[in-house]
Design goal:
The chain has two domains: 80 residues, Urease, subunit C, domain 1, CATH 2.30.40; 290 residues, TIM Barrel. It is built from 16 helices and 19 strands. InterPro entries: Metal-dep_hydrolase_composite (IPR011059), Metallo-dep_Hydrolase (IPR051781), PhnM (IPR012696).
């Protein structure tokens, strides 16, 4: 299908353009799209689609309350609708593989991965995997390594929530929530945690094997919740060249000093701070210590975070938008999207920014196909030879 989007204001190469935007098939075309059906984008911004590197809000579609589960296929389809309605055109679902039973168990991950493989071709959003391997999930590591060979290539993140739970760090206060998620009593969860902790000497070797496999298969490797510059140095040596949710400013500074990307959550910006006392993302962005924002646990947040940071200034929005589109595309090594450049995938969104504090996605296009529209999109009449002669 060919399209010509007219009368909107498009963000192209960091600047706003009112020139028509042409789409031929799945990509952005160079010739203006003369003769193609025209979409009237009057009063709308045309923005590159959001690329979400880390989102696990789908878990709430599977288990909206502790112990209350819904069908995975239903959850994935409902999540897909929420993604495109919030302008997310590429999403990496953060599937946690832990030693816990329940929602984040290996069995639950197997069911999810299998269903995503089956459904992926029918989903509107380009939906991929972000494998969040808990480094104490020793018995589950072999399956994760096999999943690294999937196509499209999954992102792999190294997570360690076990140490913080045992040593009474920032994660310890979540023990009750973790137990509920696992369908265990608090006492049962603590007993299991003690057993897992007893195998801690095996963890470094497992991390070495996992990261070696990721390097061999060419997976993007992230390190989650790094607590110090020393940890950043250690995981960098293993191949993790981006820092995901660093816990301290010093860690973020170490990553940025090395020219690396720092990934934080967009809900942090929208809410005005972290819900668990971690880095303030708005402050980090102002200091150039954050280059990527993700949905984390709330799919509307990337769109709303960008507009909140712009504070009503279009030029500021143009500078901020790469945090949710171009920069995550670069981290994920997806060179065919993230901007409205000629030859890129036609992944874009039309946004009503009449109220800059509450932008609304009017339409979402993925690979040249309109997959979401919140209201009727007017088609301009296509000129005919007769009308042109007049």
């Amino acid at each position: 299908m060919a399209w010509r989007i007219e009368n909107g204001l498009a963000l192209i190469d960091g600047r706003w353009s009112d020139a028509p935007l042409a789409i031929a098939g799945a990509t952005l075309a160079p010739d203006g799209g003369a003769g193609a059906p025209a979409l009237d984008a009057s009063g709308l911004l045309i923005l590159p689609g959001i690329v979400d590197l880390h989102g696990d809000a789908f878990e709430r579609h599977i288990m909206p309350r502790p112990g209350v589960r819904f069908d995975t296929k239903l959850a994935l389809r409902d999540t897909d609708r929420q993604l495109v309605a919030n302008g997310i055109t590429t999403a990496f679902h953060g599937v946690t593989i832990s030693w816990e039973p329940g929602l984040r168990s290996l069995d639950a991950a197997r069911a999810f991965v299998s269903m995503l493989i089956d459904l992926r071709g029918s989903l509107s959003c380009d939906t991929r995997l972000h494998l969040r391997w808990e480094t104490f999930a020793l018995d589950e590591a072999a399956q994760v390594i096999r999943w690294l060979e999937l196509s499209p290539s999954p992102i792999l993140a190294l997570n360690d929530h076990t140490t913080g739970s045992v040593l009474k760090g920032s994660i310890a206060r979540k023990i009750g929530q973790m137990a509920e998620r696992s369908s265990l009593s608090r006492e049962g969860y603590m007993a299991l945690l003690d057993h897992v902790w007893s195998r801690r000497d095996e963890v470094p070797m497992a991390i070495e094997a996992m990261t070696a496999a990721a390097r061999a298969h060419g997976n993007v490797l992230l390190a989650h919740d790094e607590a110090s510059p020393e940890e950043r140095l250690r995981f960098r040596a293993l191949g993790a060249v981006s820092s995901e949710f660093p816990l301290t400013l010093q860690t973020a500074e170490a990553a940025r000093a090395a020219g690396e990307d720092v990934i934080l959550g967009a809900p942090n910006v929208v809410r005005g701070g972290s819900h668990n006392g971690a880095l303030d993302a708005t402050d980090a962005i102002r200091r150039d210590l954050c280059t990527v924002l993700t949905s984390d646990y709330h799919y509307p947040s990337p769109l709303h975070a960008a507009f909140k940071l712009a504070d009503g200034a279009p030029d500021r929005l143009a500078a901020i938008w790469p945090l949710v589109s171009g920069n995550p595309s670069r981290v994920a090594r997806l060179r065919d999207r993230g901007s409205l450049g000629e030859g890129h995938r036609a992944d874009l969104i039309l946004v009503d920014a009449g109220d800059m504090a509450h932008p609304q996605v009017v339409a979402t296009m993925v690979a040249g196909k309109i997959v979401y529209a919140s209201r009727a999109i007017d088609r301009l009449p296509v000129p005919t030879l007769a009308s042109a002669a007049e």
